[in-house]
Recover the amino acids of this structure.
């Protein structure tokens, strides 16, 4: 089923996972999925490495298994910067053959050691390509604190409007730790005439180094309240994990109370954390 055809009175709740590394067997993901299926998400999205760091054929396989083995809708991520049009067409063929109907169309991060292929410059080029191919629901990424390479927030919103006009039916946001950035971003989208649903990307912190690396990569700012948690509990894994879960629950509660379209949880393949968050917010999301 195409996600944009989901008829819901309540917010969407979705999860994101990544495929096992090239050195691990695909089988390692199934224990994670067994547990994540208890969370009853509206869909699970599966990342796809732009620079060849993972075995990308597993993205298609895992997205297919999420549908057929677990009965949960799936979304395959597809970054285009290192693809030729012929590569992209082959992947679309493969996705179609595996019954996958939803694609998160991405540019992908630039790898300084790998020159881009230059057949797709921006995600909007891929959005157009997929829509010409036909048969998929296309989702795009967005950045509440502005994409790191954008020359200004206004330019980023202008490009986002263009991407949506090329045929994205929904947006999923980059992670953020201060909901005010998300609310102000939604206002900017509204003013720009971006009218598709926007899911809020939430990443529960469980490890200080991991969060510092992620925020450096994606430009999300760390509020004082959040930094205090990282500093106080950095050497106590259980306390940091519990504080990170509590922080994510607090963020989600506020987002739902403010009527957001959906919550997209970056699970980092950690079902324990996803389950604890789901248990705490399931009634809030359904209300
Ligand atoms: P775009 O929408 O193309 O935007 C990239 C930059 O170009 C922005 O600064 C934008 O303002 C600018 N721009 C866009 N159009 C134009 C134009 N016409 N002229 C000038 N400038 C323009 N990466 C992966 O490799 N694999 C994944 O699985 C993956 N999953 C992700 C999931 C989510 C929810 C998010 C938010 C990101 C994900 N990423 C993933 C990271 C993403 O690939 C990077 O953030 C990348 O740098 C930008 O991708 P995009 O699709 O947003 O690009």
């Amino acid at each position: 089923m195409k996600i944009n055809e989901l008829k819901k009175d309540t917010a969407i709740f979705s999860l994101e996972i990544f495929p096992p590394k090239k050195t691990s067997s695909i089988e390692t993901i199934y224990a994670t999925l067994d547990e994540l299926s208890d969370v009853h998400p509206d869909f699970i999205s599966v990342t796809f490495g732009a620079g060849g760091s993972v075995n990308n054929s597993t993205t298609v396989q895992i997205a297919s298994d999420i549908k057929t083995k677990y009965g949960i809708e799936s979304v395959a991520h597809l970054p285009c910067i290192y693809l030729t049009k012929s590569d992209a067409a082959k992947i679309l063929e493969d996705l179609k053959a595996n019954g996958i109907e939803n694609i998160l169309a991405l540019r992908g991060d630039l790898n300084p050691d790998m020159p881009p292929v230059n057949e797709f410059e921006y995600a909007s080029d891929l959005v157009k390509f997929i829509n010409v191919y036909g048969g998929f629901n296309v989702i795009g990424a967005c950045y509440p604190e502005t994409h790191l390479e954008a020359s200004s927030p206004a330019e980023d919103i202008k490009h986002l409007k263009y991407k949506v006009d090329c045929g994205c039916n929904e947006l999923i946001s980059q992670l953020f730790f201060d909901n005010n950035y998300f609310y102000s971003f939604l206002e900017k989208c509204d003013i720009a005439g971006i009218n598709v649903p926007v899911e809020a990307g939430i990443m529960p912190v469980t490890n200080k180094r991991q969060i510092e690396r992620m925020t450096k990569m994606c430009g999300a700012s760390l509020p004082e309240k959040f930094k205090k948690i990282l500093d106080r509990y950095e050497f106590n894994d259980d306390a940091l994990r519990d504080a990170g879960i509590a922080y994510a629950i607090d963020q989600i509660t506020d987002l739902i109370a403010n009527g957001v379209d959906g919550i997209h949880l970056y699970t980092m393949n950690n079902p324990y954390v996803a389950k604890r968050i789901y248990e705490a917010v399931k009634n809030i999301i359904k209300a």
Observations:
- Residues 237-257 form the longest helix (21 residues).
- The pocket of flavin-adenine dinucleotide is lined by residues 47-50, 77, 79, 104, 106-109, 122-124, 141, 147, 149-150, 155-156, 159, 163, 172, 174, 201 (CB under 6 Å).
